[in-house]
Amino acid sequence: MVSNKKTTTPRKPRQTTSHKASAKAASRKTTPRKKKKVAKKWEVPVWMYYALMALMTIVFIAVFYYFFIRPYAYRWKPCYGMKAYGVCLPAGYRVHGIDISHHQDRVNWKLLSQTRKGNFPIRFIFMKATEGGDFSDKQFVANFDSARANGFIRGAYHFYNPKTDASRQADFFINSVKLEKGDLPPVLDIEQKSKDMDKLRADLKVWLKKIEAHYGVKPIIYASYKYKERYLNDSVFDSYPYWIAHYYVDSVRYDGDWKFWQHTDYGTIPGIDGRVDLNVFNGSVSSLDSLRIR
Predict the structure, then answer these.
(1) C-alpha–C-alpha distance, residues 157 and 131, integer Å
(2) What is the pLDDT of residue 35?
(3) What does the angle CA 219 – CA 182 – CA 211 come to, to the nearest 5 degrees?
(4) Is-contact 186 145, C-beta < 8 A?
(5) Catalytic-labelled residue, pool 99, 137, 203, 277
(6) Residue 191 among the catalytic residues
(7) Phi and psi for 162 in degrees, rounded to 5?
(8) What average pLDDT does the chain have?
(9) Where are the domains of the chain?
């Protein structure tokens, strides 16, 4: 006989949450985890550390020497000439002088005048008079008058400003400085550069020509020997008396003709507080007299 009743398949019992958790835990145990790779830190070898330290020390010493020792090494060199005014004077020069400005403040001219009677008498003094087109040195008038009253050969200089009109600067100097018979020629002090050096050279010639026309004498050009060689090295500028600035050397490193040499900014002079620029004249006293305004 055939039965019409449906046969049923027994259902599997549902897994509870606890059963699922235990199953996951079991799978975790059976599945191995991948280990994370940890990057090792690179350490500087000891020999390289000391090598870098030695290199840095050498570089520091070299830079320190170049900027702080080498320019002033002349101060500590043995003096084979004659020492005076706190420095070793250049050998072979007998006519000495100084240049001053408001930076030296007030000068005790009574004490300063005593240097005219020493073994290395101070004979000439250049004084700053003007700068640019409107700056007058506050000590100029007192210094200029006192220099003549105390028997010094005196001169006046103008500090040139490349940013100011050259003709205006010349007029300003002319209106500020009344040179007399026996004074040294006026001085153009050029130290600053310009973005347009060709224009600067042309402007300097304007100043020089205007000053020469007014005073009837060729002005003196003051510049460092490097500035002169790089920027004023032509026949026009060579025709003017040259006052060279070159510190802490035994001799002038300039092949051209020069009249005055500012050889140090480290001098000490009676009657003046602080350091003073010292100069020598390239010639005898009579040669210096021939340069003075007649």
Answers:
(1) 9
(2) 59
(3) 25
(4) no
(5) 99
(6) yes
(7) -60, -20
(8) 88
(9) 72-291
Q: DSSP character for 69?
A: I
Over residues 8-49, the pLDDT tens digits come to 455 555 554 555 555 555 555 555 565 566 566 677 788 888
SS3 123: strand
Integer Cα distance of 18 and 13 in angstroms: 14
Please report the pLDDT score of residue 289 as a whole number: 97
Please report the pLDDT score of residue 204 as a whole number. Answer: 98
- The CATH label, of 3.30.413.10, 3.20.20.80, 2.60.40.1470, 3.30.428.10, for the domain at 72-291 is 3.20.20.80
Q: Which among 105, 134, 191, 257 is annotated as catalytic?
A: 191
DSSP string, 18-52: HHHHHHHHHHHHHSPPPPPPPPPPP---HHHHHHH
| pLDDT, averaged in runs of 10, over the chain (294 residues) | 46 52 53 59 80 92 78 65 89 95 96 93 98 97 97 98 98 98 98 97 98 98 96 96 93 91 95 96 97 96
User: What burial class does residue 271 get, using C-beta atoms within 10 Å of its C-beta: 0-12 exposed, 13-18 middle, 19+ buried?
Assistant: middle
Position 118 scores a pLDDT of 86
